[in-house]
Structure formats: structure tokens, C-alpha cells
Amino acid sequence: MVQLFRSLIFVPGNNIRFLEKAKKIEADIVCFDLEDSVPDKEKKHARKLIKNALKSRSEYFSSVFVRTNSPISKKIPDDLKEVIRKGIDGIVIPKVNNVKELKKIEKNLQSLEKTRKIKPIQIIPSIESAEGVVNTYQIASCSKRVTAVVFGVFDLLNDLGIEYTKGPEGAKYSRAKIPIDAKAAGIAAIDAIWQDLKDIKGLEKDCKSGKSLGYTGKSLIHPDQISLTHKVFYPTKTEIQWAEKVCKSYLASAKTGKGATTVEGKMIDEVHFKQAEAILKITKKL
Question: C or N terminus of the chain, fewer CB within 10 Å?
Fold first, then answer.
């Protein structure tokens, strides 16, 4: 399966009605949430609801991820014990500050995957602190499991002691740095949520701003935001032409037993091929 990152929508894990409705959502990633949208007293119940939802994985249109609690919460082992099973495509880990935190979680994942005989799942760390911003490249490049990073603007501003406003000055450096670090690591970057559901023009402007910074998609909190987000993050004509050339050249090279090739003088390997596949899937040319 070619993973797309135009839209990642959070669905409260303690709401069985929302979990059921998520089957019809056409976001690239549906992310069942165990963190911010779930009160502490309902965490245990939410884990069970998500566990049951994963049994119906084939009924979901999108890739299915789960957002765990944060490393500092000490709740991740309990989260993973319930949700790491057949049906899950990956996890989003909020408030990741450094590689050490991620490696500890990965070790737990490996043990569960081996015991339950499931394939390695994807990890998307969420960057939400000053320390996390400083360490983004190291976090993004520390494991092949890490396929994208998410920018979490609200907790970052809280960490910096800055009040949230639309387009906050204090977040500009962090917002610009994260996709650069992600690109250097060869993975995708997903922009922060747009909180004002009534401000559609604001959402469109924010999506365009994110795309201009190098983000491949956006975090969402409501299905009504998906269509516009996908429209903004639709590949450009140049990107589509590049993808067609890459797929054609790489597949021809693979038939000869080679693992890499060149397109217009630039080295192309499996990572570039997968990126090209994703673009052509969006445009329905694959």
C-alpha cells in the first residue's frame, strides 16, 4: 500500500459513534485518538473501543493510525498493549522531544509485533516542544519506521509561553524548520491543525502557506476540512510529470536487477519511487 499524507484526521477514541462514522471518511489517514480528546478516566475504555474497531479494519476507507499518549505520560505501554494488533497501519506519538524517547517505544513495538506476528508498523512523531523542534532531523531519521512527522503548534506555543493567535509569530521558525528537516531525512511533513471550523478561507490560506513551506498535508479535526485540504495539496503539473518519469525509469531499471537509476541527471532510488507512486495515486494515473 502506498501511504499518502495529504490529510490526517483525529477521531476521539472514546466515542463509538465517531469511530463508526470514520469508516466512511476519505482522509488519507484516520487517527484514533487516545491523547488530548480523551479524559484520563476514559483512557481504558477508549483503548478497548479502538481494539474492537481494528477488528473491522477492512471497513475503513483510509489508513488507520492510533495516537498514543505522550512519552512523559508513562501511558504508552498500556496503549500499545491494546492497540498493536492486526488492522493497525501505524501510530502517531505526541510530544516527542528526542530520539531516546522514540527508541524506547520502538523496542516495545518490536516485542509486541513479534509476539502477535504482525508486520512492522509506521511511526509518525509529533513535534510539539522547543526541544522537539531542535531535534526534528534526528527524530525524523532515527528509524525506517518513521514515515512522517507532524507539527503540533498549540503545545509548542504553550512550551514557549506564547498565546495562540492565527498565524502566530512565535511559531514561524518552527513551522518552517520542520519540513526542511523532514525532507532532509527523506520523509513527509504534516502541518498543524486549523482550529476554526467556520473560517474556511482561513483554512485555505493556511493550507497554501503550509504547502509553500514544504508540507505534504495537514492535520484535521473535522471531515468538512478534507475536501479543501486535498484540493490545495493536489500535485502540481511539474510534480506529476516528475512522478511519471521516475516510475517509468525505476521500473525499467528494476527489471534489469538494479536498485537505483537516474532521471534528468539525478539519482533515483526506492524512496523516490515510492514518492512518485504516491503522487500518481493521488492523480489516479497509477
Answer: N
Helix (H, G, I), strand (E, B) or coil at 270: helix
pLDDT, tens digit, 9 for 90 and up, residues 139-186: 999 999 999 999 999 999 999 999 888 888 889 999 999 999 999 998
For 154-188, the DSSP string reads HHHHHHHT----SS-GGGHHHHHHHHHHHHHHT-E
- Non-local (6+) Cβ contacts of 231 within 8 A are none
| Residue numbers of the domain that contains 244 | 238-282
Nearest to 118 by CA among 94, 146, 91, 92: 91
Same domain, yes or no, for 205 and 266?
A: no
The verdict on 258 and 180 lying in the same domain is: no
What pTM, to 2 d.p., does this model score? 0.89
Cα–Cα distance, 229 to 245 (Å, whole number): 26
Q: Which residues contact 131 (CB under 8 A, 6 or more apart)?
A: 97, 98
CA dist 177 and 137 (Å) reads 9
- Per the structure block, which three cell numbers stand in for 157? 506555543
- pLDDT, tens only, 247-284: 999 999 998 988 789 998 888 888 788 888 888 988 87
Specify whether the CB–CB gap between 144 and 185 falls below 8 A.
no
Domain count, the chain: 2
Measured from the Cβ of residue 154, the count of other Cβ atoms closer than 10 Å reads 15
